[in-house]
Amino acid sequence: MLDLAIIGGGPAGLTAGLYATRGGLKNVIMFEMGMPGGQITGSSEIENYPGQGSVMTGMDLMASWPEQCQKFGLKHEMAEVSNISKKGDNFLVKTAEGKEYEARSVLFATGSVPKKAGFKGENEFFGRGISTCATCDGFFYKGKEVAVIGGGDAALEEAYYLAKMCSKVYLVHRRDTYRAAPSTIENIKKSANIEEVTNVSVEEVLGDASGVTGLKVKCNKTGETRDLPTPGVFVFVGRHALNAPLKQEDGTFLCDMNENGEVVVDLKMRTNVKGLYAAGDIRIEAAKQVVCAAGDGATAAVDIIEYLG
C-alpha cells in the first residue's frame, strides 16, 4: 500500500515528492515514463526562475531536481499510468504495462501541452523563434516586432502583455471576431502598437539558420498573401489537458473538471474526491510557470501529510 502515488514527474510532481517524503511519508512513488523534469526541459533559455543567477536551458535548470527530490526516499517508477479509480477509501493506480498499485492518496500532476496551429515550419522553428509562453520568452523580443496567433483570452492577454515591451505586436486570427472577454478586447483596441491581422490563415513561418525571420499569412477573402517581418511568433490556440488517466469506464471523470478538461481544485490543491489532489498545469487557473507548479506541489504535499495523519 502506497501512502502517496504521484502521477507526473515535472516540477509539481518532483516538489510534492520532496515535501511528502521529507515530511515523513514512507511509501511514495512518482510515476513518470521518461526522465523527470517536465516540459520546461525543452526550453532553450530560462532566466526568470528565482535564485537563478544566469540564463540557462530548461534541461540545466531541472538537472539537479530529481536527485534532491529523491534524497528522502521518493521512488521513480518509469511507467505510464493508464487509469486511476477508487477502491474503497483508497485508490487503484493501473499502468499501461498491467501493473496495479493501491494508494491512500494520489497527486495528479500530468500537466498540459499547447495545441499546435499546424502551419508550415511550426515544428522546425519551435524554440528558435516560435514560443507558447510570452511570460517566459517575451523579454528576448524587447523593442522588436512579434506576432501572436490566436483569438481567445490567452492570445489577447499575451498580446497585450507583449505590447508593453515590444515595438509592435501583430495579432493574427483566422476570424474577424474574438473569443475573449470584452474588457480584454477593449485593451487590445486601445493599444497603439497592436495591429490586428484578422480573417487570415497562417501559411508558414519564414526563417533561416538563425531562427524565425517572418510569418506569411493569407487573407481568407481575397487570397492575397502578406509577409509579417518578425523574429518572434507566439502561438496561443488552446491547450490539451493530459487528463486521460482520470477517465472512468463509464466515460465520466473521477473528479470535477472544467470545460477545458482541467481539474477543479481548491487553494490546497484538493479535488472534490477525498484524498485526490491535482497540481501544476493540469489544474484550473494554472499560471503555467515552473515556480508556480513547484509551489502547487509543495502545497499539495503539506496537506496530504495532514490528511494521512
Question: What does this 3D model show about the protein?
Answer:
Helices cover 21% and strands 27% of the residues. With 309 residues, the chain is α/β, with parallel strands linked by helices. The strands form five sheets. It has a five-stranded parallel sheet, with helices on one face. The chain has a five-stranded parallel sheet with strand order 9-16-10-11-12, with helices on one face. A three-stranded antiparallel sheet has the order 4-5-6, with no helix packed on it. Helix 1 (11-22) runs parallel beside helix 7 and helix 5 runs parallel beside helix 6. Homodimer.
Number of continuous helical runs? 7
- Main β-sheet description: 5 strands, parallel
Shape descriptor reads elongated
Tell me the Rg in angstroms: 21 Å
Strand content: 25-35%
Helix content: 10-25%
What is the tally of beta strands? 18
Please state how the strands of the largest beta sheet are arranged side by side: 3-2-1-7-18
Terminal Cα span: 16 Å
Low-confidence stretches: none
- Rounded average pLDDT: 95
